[in-house]
Specification:
Layout: H1 3-9, H2 31-63, H3 67-70, H4 72-95, H5 97-116, H6 121-149, H7 154-184, H8 189-192, H9 194-208, H10 221-243, H11 249-271, H12 285-315, H13 320-326, H14 328-348, H15 350-368, H16 377-405, H17 412-447, H18 455-487
Amino acid sequence: MSQSSRQLSAGDGDKGDAGKNPAPARLTRSPGIALALIVSCEFMLQLDTTIMNVALPTVQDDLGFSRTGLSWVINAFLLAFGGLLLLGGRAGDILGHRKVFIAGTVLFTLASALGGLAPTAETLVVARALQGIGAALAAPTGIALLATNFEEGKARNRAFAIYSTVAGSGLALGLVLGGVLTTGLSWRWVLFINIPFGALVVALAPRFINETGRNPGRFDIAGALTSTVSMTALVYGFIRVSEHSWGDPVALVSFAVGVVLMAVFIAVEKRADQPVMPLRLFTRRTRAGAYVNLLLIAATLTSMWFFLVQFLQGVLDYGPLVTGLAFLPMAAAVFASSQFVPRILPRFGTKPVAISGVALVGVATVWLTRLSVDSEYLTDVLGPLVLFGLGAGPALVSHNLIVMSEAAPEESGAASGVLQAMLTVGGSLGLALLVTAHGRAMRSAQENLPTGMGEADGERFALAEGINGAFQLGSVFAVIGLVVAVCVVRARRPAPAGG
């Protein structure tokens, strides 16, 4: 392995986290198949993030959800997923990442079958919560398996690039498949489609993915309990804010509980011999900066999905299927970026790639602040979607590599659990903040409608102005992320190949 690869995978700059970053103990003998299984699971999880959104109106009619209750089809998944991520990552460190990865996939697959067969609204919500628990076990251990089954340098860089590409493609294709399946078959197939992916992973993972081994240790029960409840309370608070307002009493209580228990959690982790989240994960400047940027990237991308779907359907009058197809250029751009990211990482290092990716996402977000009731897809939406696709891949791959390459093998599950938690909380936080900005801008537009504008045109005008206001705040997230990438993340310039 070249020195440039060693330097790139060693964290690009900072020194000292337990001093070193040893190579994985057991590299997989079938890297192609192992990677295919890990990314198939991630594709299934990401597909499920967006595919259900398109089916919600049909689900409401079929199972008799109230408008408020319908949101729990999404929120039950988010709460369980966000609340249990740290525990899932730590479980992999102690019990073995492959074992926990398979267990999570089994639970997610069975829960998908239960949801697809759900006879009542309550059953579907329970199934979605079980899916969230399964995802909280599978997602962080899947990332850890990438770090431990692939050699540092070119092989690991490419694995992370493909992983991020599949994740982005799953988000985009979820919208398309949701429209196709709901229209052509039934909303239940939105859940049934997970079953073949899950069955394939469960059947083949024991054969082709190497286990990382059980690290001596015990579960930090107090840390696991306080982290789970605090994360759940914070995520629930953001969900309440997105549905109501920042002054909602339930949201305020939820935030208070989350903050207090997070403080208790930190105190517990300082004293724990084997913490569920080692606080030293945040002591290194580069990795801490990467965690912050993952939160900001998730906030920007999640909000982009949410508001662009509203713009396409509410302002441009697109149907569900056409809306999904409108996101295909972004999926194509993500795929294209995956082809060059593994090639430029060894040459330039993670910091320049991270800066470039975050900058492209920032330009795309600023571009979307130009949206208005007179905007068109080809001139005002297509360009930002392509830039998002070209920027999201490099941004996510580089920050994921920074986090995981600096974690010792026995901490890879905890590091990936925090990584996934940043993405989940970042998405919830970003959406809550931008929904508030959207509401204020929309109310202002309703109070200042152009003279002579009819009711239908007035609604479209106000919606467009509200979405514009949301993207104005979203552009602030992107700018902060660029500052962090430039000023906080450190990186060595890789030595010439063979050096």
